[in-house]
Structure formats: structure tokens, C-alpha cells
Amino acid sequence: MAEEKPKGDAGASGDEKEKKEGGSKPDLATVAGLLAAFGGILGGLILEGGRIQDVAQITAAFIVLGGTLGAMAISMPLPTILRAMKRARDVFFERSVSPQSAVDEIIGYATKARKGGIVSLEAEADNIQDPFLRKALNLAVDGTDLQELRKMMELQISIEHERTEAEAKVFEAAGGYSPTIGIIGAVLGLIQVMKHLSNIEEVGHGIAVAFVATVYGVGVANILFLPAASKIKARAKRELEMRELVLEGVIGIVEGLNPKLIRSKLDAYTVGHEEKPAQDNKAKPAAVSAATARSEAPSQAA
Fold it and tell me: What percent of the chain has a predicted confidence (pLDDT) above 70?
């Protein structure tokens, strides 16, 4: 496990980190949602006697997307926008992160530390896959004060979460601007229509084309931008929970808690993520309570 992982990946890029954490897989909910949304809208258009060509207007798309991008650039710092563009892949792909696997890994370290002391983890700490766990465990092995360790790692959690929230706000802002830009596109189209009032057939066609920009603006806001912001926030919340899980596990190791007690504590983070652990927890509540009681008994006696 640890032997195959190269050292010195503390500054690994997002792509490298993703590979080390088990890669990613397509988000079926996003794919199904896009197919349902576009299928329903275009299907309704066809059922009403329309054609896809009626809404396939490059000029309208250029106005809406270009105007929205410009508004985003004015309202948001460029580095935040660039990070948000990279973060967009989280909408279509999800990393295969398993809370139960993280708990099992931490319990393995806790068991070894209980037998040989926390210093016995020094050889493995530098080669841990997860950068957050690697940093926390290295601090613990180095003898960092418990409160200082918690403060440092909570600060990192807070900064990473705020950064992700800022990236989600980029898409929220785009979802707010695009409908208005769509209206601007429609007005520009109507201006061109007014130049040809002498030809009533051309006026009717021009009005229909003009309102395509409004459709684009409202559509991309409510099908792409706003849902993307919500999914990024959901991913950020799950990542926050994983960071908290790791931190609580490392704190338990530093405190010298019984591995069974640490597992009992961390199992709360696995509920709702994986069915099997949740079923196991329901099937063995008495055993967990008994293990907790046995582990607490010596400390109370002391």
C-alpha cells in the first residue's frame, strides 16, 4: 500500500490528488438530469409543431454566453473564475471517496499506535494518499500540541470550504446574469425587426428569432448555472464531512483512545453514504455499546 506511493506529494495538483484518491466516475444524476431537461423542453417544442432549428440561433447563444461571461469577469476576481471553471468537472464527475474506507484506514493507524506508540506511524505517515490525513498524522507524530493541531487543521478546513463556496458563487452569479442578458438579446433582436415593418412576414419571423435569446438566458441559468452551483456546494459539504472525519480520527489517535471507541465515534459520518455499514450498525447496536462501555471503564477507574 504505502510502498507504491511516492513521497513529496504535499503540493500535488488536483488531477494527481484525484488519481490518488481512487479516480472519478461520471455523475449519473447530472447526465440523467440534463437529458431529462433538454429532452422535455425540445420534446415539448416538437409536440407543439415547432422545430429544433427554431431555437438553434448562434447569434442568441453568442450574446447570452458572451454577455454572461463578461458580467462574471467584472463581478468576480479572475483567479476565482478560473478555479470555478476547473471545479465544473465536479458537476459531471464525482470522486470515489468512501467514508467507510477512511474509517478503516484510521482504525488501522489507531491500532498500530496503541500497540507501538504514535511514533510507530512515522514511517507510514509520509506516504499516506490523502494530503489532509498525511498532514494531520505528521503533526501528531511530531508531537504537536493537541489543541494546536486541531486549530491548524480546522483552519485549513475552513479556508478550503470558503474557497469552494466562492467557486460555487461564480455559477450562482452567472445564473443571475444570464436571464437579464437574454432579455438584452431579445431587445436587440426586436430593434432589428423594427427596421423591416413594411414586410409583415419578415416581422413575424424576426420576433420569433428575437425571443430565442430570452430562452437561452433563462434556460442556461436554470438548467446549468444554478444547478451546478448547488451540486458544487453539495460536494463541498461532503468533502467537509470527510475532513472532519479524518480530524476526529487523528485526535482520537493522539488521545490514545481505544480503536473500537474511535470507530464508534466515526461511524456517525458513514451513515447515509454506504448501505452496508449502516445495516451493520443497526444490527449490532448492543455490541457497539458494550465495546464503548468496556473501553471507558479503565479510564473511569483511573
Answer: 80
Owning domain of residue 156? 20-274
Summarised one tens digit per residue, pLDDT across range 9-29 is 433 444 444 444 446 788 888
Q: In angstroms, rounded to a whole number, what is the distance separating the alpha carbons of residues 173 and 156?
A: 26
Does residue 297 register a pLDDT over 80? no
Domain count, the chain: 1
* 213 Cβ neighbours under 8 A, 6+ residues apart: 57, 59, 60, 63, 64, 181, 182, 183, 184, 185, 186, 188, 189
Domain membership of residue 5 (yes or no) is no
Span 131-187, pLDDT tens digits: 899 999 989 988 888 899 999 999 999 999 999 999 999 999 999 999 999 999 999
CB-based contact 202:196 (threshold 8 Å): yes
Residue 95 is assigned to a structural domain of this protein: yes
**13, part of any domain:** no
Would 67 be classed as within a structural domain? yes
Report d(CA 17, CA 11) in Å as an integer: 9
Mean pLDDT value of segment 226-252:
92
- Amino acid in position 211: F
Please determine, for residue 95, whether its predicted confidence score (pLDDT) is greater than 80: no
Measured CA to CA, the distance from residue 129 to residue 19 in angstroms comes to 10
